[in-house]
Each structure stands twice: as C-alpha cells, then as structure tokens.
Amino acid sequence: MQTTKDDLYRFVRRYVGDAEEAYDLIQDAYAAAWLAIRRYDPSRPFAAWLRTIAINKCRDWSRRRQVRRWLVNATPLDGLEAMRVEGKDPAPDDQVAAQALLRALDRAVVDLPTKLKEPLLLTTMEDLSQAEVAAILGVSVKTVETRVARARRSLANTLAPLREA
After folding, report:
1. CB 99 within 8 A of CB 82
2. Which of 40, 85, 116, 164 holds its CA 20 to 30 A away from the CA of 68?
3. What single string gives the DSSP state of each residue in 117-161?
4. CATH number, domain at 64?
C-alpha cells in the first residue's frame, strides 16, 4: 500500500471528483485486491493489476451515482478542492476565475463518458504510455489514442465559454 496509495488516490480522485469518495473507493480497491490476491499473476505489474481493480470500483461508483441522480434528481458533486499553485498570489479576481475554471474542469472530467475518462486520466494524470493503458483497459493502442483525443476535444469545448469570459 505504501508504494501505490498516492498514485492510486490521485487517479481515483480525478476519476470521481470528490476527495472523500476517492478515499472510500481506494479502501474498497485495496480490500478487493486483498481478497483476490491469489488470482494475481506475478508476471504482470502489480500496480497495473491494482489500478484495474480501482477502475472497476470507480465504474461501480459511477453506475450507483447515476442511479441515485435519477432517483432523487441530484446535482453533480461540487465539493471539489482547487489545486494550489506555489508562488505569488494572483489578484483576487484572477484567483476566483482560476478556481472557477478548475472546478469546471473537475466537473467536466467527472462528467466525461467512462470510455473517454479512463484513458485520459491514465495517460495524462498517471503518465502511463498508451500501450500500458491499452493493456489495462483491454483495448488497442489506437483506441486509446482516439479516446484521449476525443476527451481533450470534449473538455476544450466544455471549457471554451469560461476561458472566453
């Protein structure tokens, strides 16, 4: 856990957009990994195996979230933390605009379809190669490339009105 928890948390946090939910999902992933440890193939990277379990936990969470939204007409999660950048503090107006853009980016990533979100997060946030992502997701490298491009295009379109304001 010591060697994988930070990377896994960062990935899950970006996937679900909520820090508390991410901690819960990480715990679920580690518990599931412990229960399935006999099925682990030592010839494959442990981190990739664990990340696959975490992705499945995130998918389950997304499905449950969609059902809850439908049942109670819930709105998207907005308890998102803005990332702090070290250095000189920007002007208050710039800081508010930057925080709004970060919140919008977090919401847009969370709202991406699963097929676009997973390859985007794995390649950009986890710095995995497209071949590694393809192996984790069980798709071709070209599929990963296409999905990442579509995800970036979708995010750019979603955030364009905010950047122009």
Report:
1. yes
2. 116
3. HHHHIIIIIS---HHHHHHHHTS-HHHHHHHHHHHHHHHHHHHHH
4. 1.10.10.10
Exposure on the CB side of residue 127, measured as CA atoms within 13 A: 2
Give Cα 20 to chain centroid, integer Å.
Answer: 14
Q: What is the pLDDT along the chain (165 residues), one digit of tens a residue?
A: 888 888 899 889 988 888 898 999 999 999 999 999 998 989 988 888 999 999 999 888 887 776 555 544 444 444 444 444 445 555 665 666 667 777 888 888 888 898 999 898 888 877 788 998 999 899 999 999 999 999 989 988 888 887 665
Q: How far is Cα 77 from Cα 69, in angstroms, rounded to an integer?
A: 10
- Whole-number Å distance between alpha carbons of 76 and 73: 10
Q: Are 137 and 119 in contact (CB under 8 A)?
A: yes
Query: Which residue, 125, 136, 158, is CA-closest to 12?
Result: 125
- Sorted by sequence, the CB contacts under 8 Å of residue 162 that are 6+ apart come out as 100, 101, 104
CA distance 104 to 89: 21
